[in-house]
Amino acid sequence: MAVLTVRNLPDEVHRALRLRAAGNRRSTESEVREILASAVIPEQRIRMGTAMAAITRGNGLTKEDVFALEKAIKETRDNKPAEPLRFE
After folding, report:
1. pLDDT computed for residue 86 by the predictor
2. Are 31 and 17 in contact (CB under 8 A)?
3. Packing angle, helices 11-23 and 28-40, rounded to 10
4. Is residue 30 situated within a structural domain?
5. Does the residue 3 lie in any domain?
6. The domain containing residue 57 runs over which residues?
7. Confidence at residue 79, expressed as pLDDT on a 0 to 100 scale
C-alpha cells in the first residue's frame, strides 16, 4: 500500500476532517481514505460482465439460443489446445 503525506494542511481543514470522521465513527485517517477514494473512483463503474450481458439482452438472444451456440461449439471443438497468434 502506498503512503501519502499531506503537508501544510490548514488547521481549519484538519479540524473539519476530525469532526467529519467522528460523525462517521471513523478515524481521521480512515475518513481521508474514504474521501480520496470517493473522489477518484466512480460509484458506477462499468463492469465487463454487466456490459456484455446488457449487449446480449439488447440483441434478443434467448437462453435456448445460448444453449444452441454452446452445443455447436462443443461439437466442432477437436480437443486440441489453441495455437497462439502469430504476428508475422
Report:
1. 86
2. yes
3. 90
4. yes
5. no
6. 46-78
7. 67
Q: Which grid cell is 3?
A: 503512503
Q: Running along the chain, 88 residues long, what does each successive block of 10 average in pLDDT?
A: 92 96 95 92 78 78 83 75 80
**pLDDT of 78:** 66
Task: For residue 76, give the C-alpha cell.
Answer: 466442432
The 10 Å Cβ neighbour count of residue 83 is: 6
How far is residue 28's CA from residue 79's CA, in Å, rounded to a whole number?
A: 57
CA angle 26, 19, 3 (to 5 degrees): 55
Q: How far is CA 55 from the centre of its chain?
A: 18
Together in a domain, 26 and 50:
no
- Joined grid coordinates for residue 22: 467522528
Asked whether 28 and 18 are in contact (CB, 8 A), the reply is yes
Task: Name every residue whose Cβ is closer than 8 Å to that of residue 21 and which is 6 or more positions away in sequence.
Answer: 27, 28, 30, 31
